[in-house]
Amino acid sequence: MEKNLILQVKDLNIEFHDHLIPETVVYDFDLDLRVGEIVGLVGESGSGKSMSALAIAGLLSRKDMKKRGQILFDGVDILTCERNVLRKIQGNDIGIIFQEPMTSLNPLKKIGWQVEEALRIHTELSKEERYYRVIEMLRDVELEDAERIYHQYPHELSGGMRQRVMIAAAMICNPKILIADEPTTALDVTIQAQIVELLKRLNREKQTSILFISHDLSLVRQLCRRVMVMQGGYVVETGDTEEIFNHPREAYTQKLIAAIPKVVRKS
User: Fold this and answer.
1) CA–CA separation, 59 vs 77, rounded Å?
2) How far is CA 243 from CA 221, 225, 236, 239, 246, in A?
3) Would residue 17 be called left, alpha or beta, if left means φ above 0 and alpha means ψ between -120 and 50 degrees?
């Protein structure tokens, strides 16, 4: 792998075997992700983008499915490595945030305990050191009154605050890669813009590489330097974000761009 290449996915194919007839959901997926780069993965529901992201995060079951190809992170193939090796990578080197934090956060556990989880697994920090690290991270994701939030439960926070908590939990160990799987879908437009700006800042300050999965091309254009378009399990177009927006080659990409709502300005 070249020096600044942090992740390389080669010829990834994912086939489910939990039905009578095997079903392939990702075909020949390739990705080179560099240090500090933000790449967008776009497409409609069922296009294979989230399945590809889950494979990169090492979160796909090793049963009921067949996976072919390589996902190389720091010389380790995430598809085939031992589980103890994978556990060291997950949450420490590769963090992930999901679409709906209420289904990802434990409603019975306080926020601080949940954000601390990766520190308990991957570090030797004392309880007090973990507390201060979590407070610092909650502030870093722009949550006011971090000490109070530390002791609250998920239902006591707004949707935007919960999503910031999820980002804090994913970033607590300063991972090299952050996978953001539809992280703004459940939020209103104003909060979406704030989350995008937060991800931009974390990328800029920490040089965290980000894989941003979304069906919202307007958000992808704001955040990503490069974009990959998926349809029916295939990557149908990839390249510089502005180039693809201004000169899309594939009919499917043209259709996605044409569907972006236009802002009508009143005179």
Assistant:
1) 14
2) 11, 10, 15, 7, 5
3) alpha
**Cross-strand partners of 169:** none
pLDDT tens across 136-170, in order? 999 999 999 999 999 999 999 998 999 999 999 99
Handedness of CA 26, 32, 36, 38 (dihedral sign): negative
- Taking the C-alpha atoms of residue 81 and residue 46, their distance in angstroms, rounded to an integer, is 27
Gyration radius of the chain's alpha carbons? 19
Angstrom CA distances, 135 to 113, 169, 194, 242, stand at 11, 11, 20, 38
**Residue given tokens 């972006």 in the structure block:** 260
Tell me the pTM: 0.92
Q: Which residues neighbour 86 within 8 Å (Cβ) at sequence distance 6 or greater? A: 58, 78
Calpha distance 86→146 (Å, rounded) = 31
Answer for the pair 98, 182: CB distance below 8 angstroms, yes or no. yes
Q: pLDDT tens-digit profile of 210-231?
A: 999 998 888 899 999 999 999 9
Q: Where are the alpha helices (DSSP H) in the chain?
A: 49-56, 83-89, 101-104, 111-115, 117-122, 127-140, 146-150, 159-171, 189-206, 217-223, 241-246, 251-258
Measured distance CA(152)–CA(157) in Å, rounded: 8
Q: What angle do CA 143, 147, 148 make, to 5 degrees?
A: 85
8 A C-beta contact, residue 114 and residue 165: yes
